Amino acid sequence: MPKVHRPDFEAFKNAKRKESREAYMWPHINLEDMEQPRPLLLLLKSSARNAPHLFLHADLEASKLGRGIGAIRFAFLRQYTMIFVGRMSPQKYGELISWDDHDHAFDWLNSGWGLHPGYGLLALEIQQQIYKFLLEYTRQILHEITEESLIADFPVLPEPTINDEGDWHSLAAVAADAPYRLPAGLDLDSIITIIDGKRSASEDHLLALREDPGYFAGVVNAYKEHRQEILLDTRNLWFALKQFMIVPVAVLKMATPASPPLRSLWVRDPPELGTSTMRVQTRENVSMSKSQTELLWILNMFWDDSSPILRVGRKTLMDELECLVQSDPKNKELVSFQKATEPAIQTQPKTKVKSRGEPTKSANIVEPELNPRIDDAQPLFKVDKRAFKVFSTLFFQPSQSSQPGEIPWNDFLHAMASTAFAVEKLYGSVWQFSPRNSDVERSIQFHEPHPIAKIPFRMARRIGRRLNRAYGWNGDMFKSSS
User: Fold this and answer.
1) Domain ranges in the chain?
2) In this structure, are residues 150 and 142 in contact, taking their beta carbons and an 8 Å threshold?
3) 361-378 pLDDT, tens per residue?
4) φ and ψ of 290, to 5 deg
């Protein structure tokens, strides 16, 4: 059994192909992951309670890197289909059917009910080794009980229900558990919730650009720091969808060398006369840590259009990048997610109120009509002292005797969870808060501050305004239960 996480990617980096075939076949079976408390138990539970054909495509997908670079070869047989779905016996599972013998054999191949014989044999080999490992592992644990007694004397119990409403969910944790769980289906409700939260964040972003000069200056400064351009395309929908993947990589290629944490590792040649094109390269004879070397290697693989890994997608590189960031806390400081440099923002000057006479309004100025908001009867939240302190800062009033300060991010998560919000970490620094109350359907997203996980007072006030626009919250709605 391989020792490291993602042994297929490790073998790919070391240019080991033929001699590491097993690492490419079942990369999620390795000592580093199996020694953790969750993966092995999840794999045992899901494999024991579900039919093998439910894992068929997921097991085959796990070997995609090996197949893409040619480390895994498979046979070829025309006009035949191997059927797996609905075949519950060893004699029928993976049955080979000719297209001439059955009218629907070819349709089953395209619908996912069956596989091409080459892929089917590969899937059978993968599943055979996984079930062989699980069976031998179970025998070692239950060595005092015979297999006949296990079947006759121990009936299968129903799967227990788990109440995880109070837990904080992380998209990275879900992705880490995915190879060991039953493959999930299409969850439109979750997709709609994430899109709705992103839409809400975009609306608040536009309003803040208009209403908050400090926020506007911060956004402009962030664009300046990273030189990010957004280009409109003239192609069709599929081209636009492809750009959602390509454009961020191109922006990353341009912005990374100029990023302050990595700027010392790069140099550029002067642009040619009359052009703005610059050639950027890494500096020679510069001492770099192991993490920095690994990070630059992954980024170069992202940017190299001739890289063989692009034939199987960038998800593998994204997983490795996330693993690199999580493995060393210092690496998180290199990932800024385009945060502006706040000290460069000037404070808004105070406006002197005239003491004599009333200012006259111009007749030509037309106040914009905003969509009227119907104020519903707002509930009263009784929260603990920790959460009450958070909401007092978010909705701070100058008449309060206490002085506002920074809010630890964990305290903010606790406060939102105490008001019946499901907390889930998405990508990067984005956290989504989805209301559990059926009366409220709108989700909202916030960015975790970094590198210090504390919300500055100015950002806290901005969060309070967003909560007010989204849910009509104000400081009078929260009372301390202690």
Assistant:
1) 7-157, 186-209+377-482, 229-270+283-337
2) yes
3) 555 555 555 555 555 566
4) -60, -40
